[in-house]
Specification:
The complex is a heterodimer of chains A (about 110) and B (about 475).
Chain A lengths: L56 H37 L14 E4 L1
Chain B lengths: L1 H55 L5 H29 L16 H4 L17 H22 L6 H23 L5 H6 L7 H19 L12 E4 L4 H21 L2 E2 L7 E2 L5 E2 L1 H22 L4 H16 L7 H24 L9 H19 L4 E2 L4 E2 L2 H28 L7 H6 L1 H5 L14 E4 L5 E4 L7 H5 L1
Antiparallel strand pairs in B: 2-3, 3-4, 5-6, 7-8
The chains are: A mainly alpha (about 110), B mainly alpha (about 475).
């Protein structure tokens, strides 16, 4: 079946079928990955080497998309909640009904 | 004869290499499992914080309080992944500015960069991700410490922004400096805070104090006559249960603060890579609870909230030296810490007039910093960190002088900015009605001791009140 997005790194060995394992030490699935280290989707496959900081472009881009989404989520949260709270306060200040929960607001005691 | 011996020696060499390789893999997998289970156990801390704070809140704020705690996980997790691990791994020598800036080419630093090949699925690295996850749970804890203090009037979104700042930048920076074998406080001053008295609790406490100065008290908390109003918890039993869950999770927290080295005696090291044992710290945490509960009970004259919070304060007070304290010293210091935490908590509430709903500044902030001072007084002379600098009162004071302004100023400035944009606190109407009806649904709570009406969904999707199910209808409904 053709992949929609082939994000597997090049280090993975492909090939149809698998030879039956003779024992548990013959790790037939692992053999497909024996050239790999960082084998995640869009990942570099092998280690980066001494420099270590230069990810493959796809993985680097994916990470930055995640960072941008995180920041947007935080901003969105602020904006969304602000709208809801202002709308609620406006309704209440224009004589909106008092919620039942506030009936217990007076349960308090004073102490010196 | 000689050829046979050489062949035998080669076989032996191969065999030894095989055993060594297996041992290395075994050790890595053991470490991976160990941290995994500490992470699972530490989830209970957050179940506990949610339960504890929800019980403390008035009923009209109960759901908002619980959701606030849960959503901590939603925002601190990605920010810690994208920023926090880089802060920890790349800033141990100091801030990344100036001539002595951080070493970004070190192997440890590369493991903290979010696009690093070892910061995702990696067949040659069993530890980086699981160790990060242990730190992530610490990050959630720092945010949860702040959460309780701000209850019933802070905006959810403001809290989440503050949680990201504290959980993914501030505490993890102080951890880089004073809670790592290569941190500058450790290397130069022998700063010793093995289970994070100040690094986690102290810094979170003073960060919270800074935010509280901008946030202000709940409406009605203080009167012009100088009185303090006590808003009673809506479910004190729930609060106590929450604290007990936190305590259970603390065993995972303590264990996760150690480095497991199963191939070398004694098998364990503290975060500074000095030797210790799991039993040592587990013993001190248990003695800390015992002393803390006792101190909290007597100092508060049997107040349930402060008795159990005293246990928390006691443990935090002995965490810094948990790897080296004698059990009796741990017991006595935790008792003294809890007594003082109760006094400080009451003083903050009634004299300083700062509305810290759960006493977090006293229990975490005060007790946390007292914990590192205890080490300076009672446990000087222990070589700490890669340079083997002895622990001392001066090293501990250097940590105090660094962490208090770092935590307090960052919290105060962030709170001040949010306040300036009117994004810190909910509107008055919302606070008076309760956060639950405003944030979730106006009819979310039913009157106490009454049975709520059932709702019937009409064909067009609208919900209308319905009478309760009658016994006569049962046979029809069961079908």
């Amino acid at each position: 079946m053709p992949a929609i997005i082939d994000s597997a790194p090049n280090c993975i060995q492909h090939g149809g079928g698998a030879t039956p394992a003779s024992d548990v030490a013959d790790f037939i699935v692992g053999a497909r990955y024996e050239q790999c280290a960082g084998f995640m989707t869009f990942g570099p496959g092998s280690t980066y080497g001494d420099g270590g900081q230069a990810a493959t472009t796809a993985y680097y881009t994916l990470t930055w998309i995640g960072i941008v989404v995180t920041v947007l989520v935080l901003i969105g949260w602020i904006v969304y909640e602000n709208r809801r709270l202002i709308a609620y306060a406006a309704t209440r200040s224009h004589g909106g009904s008092e919620p039942a929960a506030s009936a217990e607001a007076g349960r308090a005691e004073l102490r010196p | 004869m000689i050829h046979a011996l050489i062949a035998q020696a080669a076989e032996l060499k191969d065999a030894v290499k095989g055993i060594t390789d297996s041992q290395t893999i075994d050790s890595a997998v053991l470490g991976e499992q160990f941290y995994f289970f500490t992470v699972v156990l530490m989830w209970l801390i957050h179940v506990g914080f949610m339960t504890y704070e929800t019980g403390v809140a008035r009923r009209k704020n109960a759901l908002a309080t619980a959701l606030k705690n849960i959503l901590t996980i939603a925002v601190v997790t990605p920010t810690m992944y994208y920023l926090g691990w880089w802060v920890y791994n790349c800033n141990q020598p100091g801030l990344p500015i100036g001539p002595n800036s951080s070493d970004f080419t070190s192997v440890a630093c590369q493991g903290g960069i979010p696009w690093s090949d070892s910061f995702g699925p990696n067949l040659t690295n069993n530890i980086n991700l699981i160790f990060f996850l242990a730190f992530l749970l610490f990050s959630w804890t720092t945010a949860s410490i702040m959460s309780g203090a701000l209850l019933e009037r802070v905006r959810l979104s403001a809290y989440l922004v503050l949680a990201c700042l504290l959980g993914s930048a501030v505490w993890i920076l102080d951890a880089a400096w004073g809670w790592s074998a290569g941190g500058w406080l450790t290397l130069r001053f022998g700063f010793h805070d093995s289970i994070a008295s100040a690094v986690v609790h102290g810094v979170s406490g003073v960060f919270t104090l800074g935010v509280l100065f901008s946030l202000g008290p709940r409406i009605g908390k203080y009167t012009k006559d100088g009185l303090t109003r006590v808003f009673r918890p809506h479910n004190i039993h729930m609060t106590l249960m929450g604290l007990m869950l936190i305590f259970t999770g603390f065993y995972g927290f303590y264990a996760a603060c150690l480095v497991i080295v199963s191939t070398l005696a004694p098998g364990w090291a503290n975060i500074y890579l000095s030797p210790t044992t799991l039993g040592s710290i587990a013993m001190i945490i248990t003695m800390g609870f015992a002393g803390g509960f006792t101190g909290g009970y007597f100092a508060s004259r049997g107040d349930p909230f402060w008795t159990v919070s005293g246990g928390l304060a006691g443990v935090i007070g002995v965490s810094a030296g948990a790897d080296i304290y004698a059990p009796t010293l741990g017991y006595l210091l935790s008792m003294a810490t809890a007594v003082m935490a109760v006094w400080v908590g009451n003083w903050i509430e009634t004299k300083m007039r700062v509305d810290d709903v759960v006493g977090a500044v006293a229990v975490h902030g005060f007790s946390g910093f007292l914990g590192i001072i205890w080490v300076g007084i009672f446990a000087a002379g222990y070589p700490t960190g890669l340079n083997n600098v002895d622990s001392s009162i001066w090293g501990q004071l250097m940590g105090l002088a660094t962490f208090v302004p770092l935590g307090f100023l960052s919290g105060w400035i962030a709170g001040w900015i949010l306040k300036k944009f009117n994004l810190l606190r909910v509107p008055v109407e919302v606070e008076l009605d309760g956060l639950d009806p405003a944030e979730y649904a106006p009819d979310i709570h039913v009157p106490e001791f009454a049975q709520g009406e059932d709702m019937m969904i009409e064909p067009d999707g609208t919900r209308v009140p319905s009478e309760a199910v009658q016994a006569g209808e049962l046979s029809e409904l069961i079908r």
